[in-house]
Amino acid sequence: VALAPHIVENLFAIGAGSNIVGTVDYADYPNEAKSIERIGGYYGISLEKLLALKPDLVIGWKSGNQSEDLEQIKRLGIKVHLSDPKKIEEVANELIAFGKFTGRIEQSKQVANAFITKLKNIKKQQQSKKILTGFYQLWPEPMMTVGGNTWINQLLTICHADNVFANSDTDYPRISIENVLVAEPEVIIIPDEKSKKPQPKIDWRQWPEMPAVQHNQFISVNADLLHRFTTRMLDGLTDMCGKIDVSRQHIQASK
């Protein structure tokens, strides 16, 4: 049983998707994942449904699943492994660990090595780029962004975008429009996050004094790619770095 979308994706990436008997809401990639039985979501897990599936192993997400659920599963005598990547490079470690659990050691090593190689190439391409200041609008209402200890901040750093809220006291601070205006970002990055109800759009053009508005630099990025600890995250990173580079060129040309 895989208790997070990124765990499902990584199991499929190493050829172990057919081993998954149960998962959670939003585990929607690849297409085959959509037919796996759902046993819960961010709000909690149905232990009855989980027990009925008789799994040999439950792979949970340390910071994404409810700790009470994970403890109860352990108490029921089911083996639990916790996914807890903190750095981008650790996706490779996860892939290899999953390969050991599922008997797909060689395939997991190949996928992990390809991931590290691609990440190094992206970093190399970005290393000489001029740094821009950026605001990552994680959520519009309540307005939230990302702090310096987050996964997204690491991605922004690779793209040579300085997160204007990197020094926040919390990982996902709630902020106001005034906070953003004071921070003066040169580019605003907005993920296309899925939501069951439409989210309000903020018309930043109401504040023409902000550098991002002056230069009309608004970037849309794929949340499913960037917000999941998977191999596809590097596709999202390549896309975001490319868009930031276009913004960088536009800003430099207008100065």
Characterize the structure shown.
The protein is of the alpha/beta class. Helix content is 41%, strand content 15%. The chain has 10 helices and 12 strands. The protein has helices spanning 5-13, 47-53, 67-75, 90-102, 105-126, 151-158, 177-183, 211-214, 223-226, 233-253; strands spanning 22-23, 37-38, 40-41, 44-45, 57-61, 79-83, 132-136, 139-140, 143-144, 161-163, 187-191, 218-221. Strands 10-7-11-12 form a 4-stranded parallel β-sheet. It has a two-stranded parallel sheet with strand order 1-2. Strands 3-4 form a two-stranded antiparallel ribbon. Helix 5 (105-126) runs parallel beside helix 10 (233-253). The longest helix is centred in the middle third of the chain and has 22 residues, at 105-126. The radius of gyration is 20 Å and the shape is globular. The termini are far apart. 36% of the residues are buried.
Key structural traits:
255 residues, 41% helix, single chain, two-stranded parallel sheet, 10 helices, 12 strands
Helical stretch count? Answer: 10
Strand order, sheet with most strands: 10-7-11-12
Distance between the termini: 54 Å
Global outline: globular
Bin the helical content. Answer: 40-55%
The stretches of 5 or more residues where confidence is low (pLDDT under 50) are none
Give the helix/strand class.
alpha/beta
Please describe the biggest sheet, giving its number of strands, its sense, and whether it closes into a barrel.
4 strands, parallel
Compute the number of strand runs: 12
Rg value = 20 Å
Q: Name the beta content range.
A: 15-25%
- Reading the helices and strands in chain order gives HEEEEHEHEHHEEEHEHEHEHH
pLDDT averaged over residues: 94
